[in-house]
Amino acid sequence: MRAIIVGAGIAGLATALRLSHAGWETLVVERAAARRGGGYAVTFGGIGHDGAERLGVLRALRDRSFVTAELAYRRPDGRLRFTLSGEAIAATMDETSFTILRGDIESVLFEAVRDRTTVRFGTTVTAVDQVGRTVTVTLSDGSTEHADLLVGADGLHSAVRNLVFGPEQQYLRNLGHQVGVYMLPRRPQGLADGASGTISDGGRTFAINSVGNGRTTAFFGYRTDIPTAAVTGDPRVALPAVYRDMGWLVPEALVGLRTADSVYFDTISQAVLERWSTGNVVLVGDAAWCVSLFAGYGSSLAVGGADALGTALERHRGDIPGALAEWERALRPDVERKQRLGRWVKDVYAPRSRLMLELTQLPLRLASWPPVRSLIGRHLQG
Ligand SMILES: Cc1cc2nc3c(=O)[nH]c(=O)nc-3n(C[C@H](O)[C@H](O)[C@H](O)COP(=O)(O)OP(=O)(O)OC[C@H]3O[C@@H](n4cnc5c(N)ncnc54)[C@H](O)[C@@H]3O)c2cc1C
């Protein structure tokens, strides 16, 4: 059996790895000219943990994970509001969850699959045709490939989804926020090793995280209905405009923006489709079900979903549509639960008013008090 997988992100690489274990030949097509590194810190766990274990990459992922030693909530001028200790942060996670850079998940998967698949960088898909059980894919390098299965693992703005299911306007649910994330060239002096700091003010959030090995990520998330958010398009214009009055490490982080290698800048959206497959074409990861960073579970779902897809295809040998239907039935409830969580978080994520901010952060303040800590941990994991 042969699969063409579009996208060498977490979902695409995990799918290639799982299908190779099931005896499939795979070709991965990636638009970027080379592998992308860096990224932002994600919490990895749940079905991702179990999927990673079956894929044989859990140890390597854990080796790259890091522990946040302290999380400080600050006022816009940098004065401290309250601090969560490493212990309190750990209480919000169960023992199967850990924190890791998104790019490191990709690296681990790539190392595990590189000898088991072919990856064609700098290439995308331009046309898809399904006749009977064969999918014919035209690629941007002019070549034509045939396969038993086409997997669209090409993220929120999936080209496979556009070509096979229709334009993204039908499927993307904009959650009214914009996000900009990038790595800083060095850890600012004002941020201790292993520490994180957050400012939330007037519909805008800034977070800076020391993520191990001297690496630091800067994160900007803001409501698109605040007046300054009208500046869009180029993050190098938008972020300095929206955050111009914030102090503490914000100016230093904005200087880092000028030379950052790669900046993730997009709306925070969910993908909502009635079906994730049609015939022998299936979408996986953010292309199919993006739950958004508000739900904080996209990487875990990408790995767990890819693993489950391989299992279903193994069970239904020769009946790909049957396997895809069974896989989707099993996975959908988890995805829909996380999408509901994402929609709930959007309303409390970057409050515009001071009162709302105090109310939404009250549980975090309480989390620094040991008797409440375990209770909140159970609530956040539920
Ligand atoms: C700021 C932020 C914080 C997050 N926090 C968490 C968290 O705490 N926990 C968690 O589990 N998840 C988190 N996520 C979500 C998580 O990163 C994603 O859900 C996950 O990486 C999905 O991976 P994917 O492979 O489906 O898509 P992507 O990572 O978008 O990968 C898609 C790949 O396809 C390629 N591609 C795109 N278009 C084409 C094309 N036309 N042709 C060929 N290739 C193409 C891209 O270059 C990319 O390599 C967060 C996301 C963000 C933005």
From TrEMBL:
Cite the entry's keywords alphabetically: Monooxygenase, Oxidoreductase
Question: Which residues does UniProt call coiled coil?
Answer: none
Ranges where the FAD-binding domain occurs: 3-313
Pfam families (alphabetical):
FAD_binding_3
* Membrane among keywords: no
Note the superkingdom of the native organism. Bacteria
> What molecular functions are annotated in GO for this chain?
monooxygenase activity
Q: What is this protein called?
A: FAD-dependent monooxygenase
Organism lineage: Bacteria, Bacillati, Actinomycetota, Actinomycetes, Micrococcales
